[in-house]
Amino acid sequence: MHIHVLGSAAGGGFPQWNCNCPNCDGLRKGKIKAKKRTQSSICVSADGINWVLFNTSPDILQQIQDFAPLQPGRAIRDSGIAGIVLIDAQIDHTTGLLMLREGQVKREIYCTDMVYQDLTTGNPLLNILGHYCGVNRHDVPIDGMQSFSVEGAPGLRFTAVALKSAAPPYSPHRNDPHPGDTIGVLIEDTNNGKKAFYAPGLGEIEPHLPALMQQADCIMVDGTFWTNTEMIDMGLMTKKARDIGHNPQSGPGGMMEVLDAYPDARRVLIHINNTNPILREDSAERAELERHGIEVAYDGMDIIL
Ligand code: HKS
Ligand code: ZN
Ligand code: ZN
Q1: Which pLDDT tens digit goes with each residue over 196-238?
Q2: pLDDT confidence bin for 102, thresholds 50/70/90
Q3: Domains of the chain and any CATH numbers
Q4: Dist CA 276 CA 251 (whole Å)
Q5: Looking at the DSSP assignment, which residues form a beta bridge with residue 111?
Q6: How far is the CA of 169 from the centre of ligand 1 (A)?
Q7: Which of 285, 204, 277, 272 is nearest to 13 (CA)?
Q8: Going by CA atoms, what residue is nearest to atom 15 of ligand 1?
C-alpha cells in the first residue's frame, strides 16, 4: 500500500496565519530549520491509481495539485479520489469538502453516525454539497469487528474503532461525548497483508487499542502537542492537551511511552500543532523522538508498505 501525506499540521497549518510564537515567527523569517505544513490529511492506495482520501482539509486543492496521481486524467472531468473517509467532523478535517463540490458525480463519503449528524446540523456541509455534486454517504461501523471497503479502491480493507475524544466546538453534543465522534482506522492491503493504523485524533490509549496497534506495520498517530500544557504555557489557551482530546508526546503516559511498545512498526506523528517544538528539525525534542525511532510526518511524505 502507498500512503501519501497530503498535510501534516494541526488546524491552522504551519505557520498559522495569526500566530507569532517562536515557531511561526521563526519560519516566516527563515530563522529556524523547519518546513511549512498544510492541515492534516492522507491518501492511501493499493494499486497506485485509485485513492482513498482520509479527511478533507481546507488546503485540499493545493494538496491535490501537489500530488499528481490524484488526477489520473482519464476523462474531461476526473479524479483519482474514489472515496473519502472522515475520522471526525472537526473543521480542519472536513471543510475541504466545500472545495470538492464540482461535477455531476456524487462524492462517496464514509463516516460514523455521529460525524454525519454534526455535518448535517451544527456544520451542515453535507446538506450544502447536496445542492452541488450531491453526497452518497456510507456508514462506518465502529465495533472494531466489522470491516468495510471503499467502492472503486480495490485491495484495501478498513476496520474502524471509536476513540475517546470530544465532538467539535460547534457540535450540538460538544459536551456529551458519543462513540463515533472520532475514530481510528486500521487500513489493510489485502494483496500483501500489510497494515497501517491511522489515528490523528488519538487522545487516550483505551483498552481496545493495543490489539489493533500490535497488528500494524505503520502507526500514524496524533502529534499535536509536545506537553500537556503547551498552549497554556504560551498563554494561548486555558485547556490542557488531554482535555481537548490530544495525548502529548512527552511525560508519563505520553505518546513516546505508548509507541515504545511497538518497536517493530514504523511510528509516525501527524496533525502537529504550530507550537510544537518537534517542528524544529534541530530541537532537543526532535532528537528525543529520533532516539525513540519516531518520525515526524511532513507534507509530501510517502510510506510504502
Ligand atoms: C492554535 C490551534 C490549536 C489546535 C487545537 C486543536 C481544539 C479544537 C477543539 C486542534 C487543532 C489545532 N492550531 N479542535 O491555536 O495553535 O476544541 O475541539 O484539533 O487542529 S484541539
Ligand atoms: Zn485538528
Ligand atoms: Zn505559532
Answers
A1: 999 999 988 999 999 999 999 999 999 999 999 999 999 999 9
A2: very high
A3: 2-297 (3.60.15.10)
A4: 15
A5: 139
A6: 10
A7: 272
A8: 236
Kindly report, residue by residue over 230-274, the tens digit of the pLDDT.
999 999 999 999 998 999 999 999 999 999 999 999 999 999 999
Exposed, middle or buried: residue 66 (CB in 10 Å: 0-12, 13-18, 19+)? middle
- What is the residue with the minimal CA distance to atom 10 of ligand 1? 11
Residue of 27, 55, 90, 272 to mutate, ligand 1, most atoms within 8 A of C-beta: 90
3-state secondary structure at position 33: coil
Residue of the CA atom closest to atom 7 of ligand 1: 244
The DSSP string of 129-160 is: HTTTT-EEEEE---EEEEEE--TT-TTEEEEE
Q: What is the pTM of this model?
A: 0.97
Query: What is the C-alpha to C-alpha distance for residues 125 and 134, in angstroms, rounded to an integer?
Result: 11
CA-wise closest residue to 38 among 18, 14, 19: 14
Residues whose Cβ atom is located within 5 A of ion ligand 3: 19, 21, 24, 274
The set of residues, in sequence order, having a beta carbon less than 8 Å from that of 161 and lying 6+ positions away, is 142, 144, 183, 184, 185, 186, 208, 209, 212
Cell 495525548 appears where? 247
Q: Three-state SS for 48?
A: coil
Residue 166 pLDDT class (50, 70, 90 cuts): confident
